[in-house]
Design a protein that fits this description.
elongated, 120 residues, 0% strand, mainly alpha
């Protein structure tokens, strides 16, 4: 899956939270004693949010995610991600972030380079 590739290629410790978050979202009382019913739902919901949005956060931690992740995705990863982005909110947000990073990093820098060339 596209998001897993992002997490697997990160050196940040937080990227390793996906597995534990997935387990906690599915079974919040694993390994802990829950004394109040509300705590069960807090753990479940926090783990669910972590699982959904962790890849977006980790994308932002890369110095240059487009360059750092170049060649790491298969065409099937990209195709399934783009298909999911049509209906899945988290995938859609990640797609928008990737496109915005691409636009700001590469289009603005080429504009600056052209502008500087004219100054010479």
């Amino acid at each position: 899956m596209f998001e897993e590739v992002i997490l697997e290629n990160s050196t940040e410790r937080i990227a390793k939270l996906y597995g534990p978050a997935a387990r906690a979202a599915d079974n919040p009382d694993t390994g802990v004693e829950i004394k109040k019913k509300a705590a069960y739902y807090v753990i479940r919901d926090c783990a669910g949010i972590t699982r959904k949005y962790l890849s977006i956060h980790v994308w932002g931690l890369f110095d240059d995610p487009i360059l750092d992740l170049k060649g790491k995705f298969t065409s099937n990863d990209v195709k399934s991600f783009l298909k999911r982005a049509e209906t899945d909110t988290e995938a859609k947000l990640l797609k928008k972030l990737i496109l915005a990073d691409n636009k700001t990093k590469y289009r603005s820098s080429s504009y600056i380079n052209r502008y500087n060339c004219y100054q010479l």
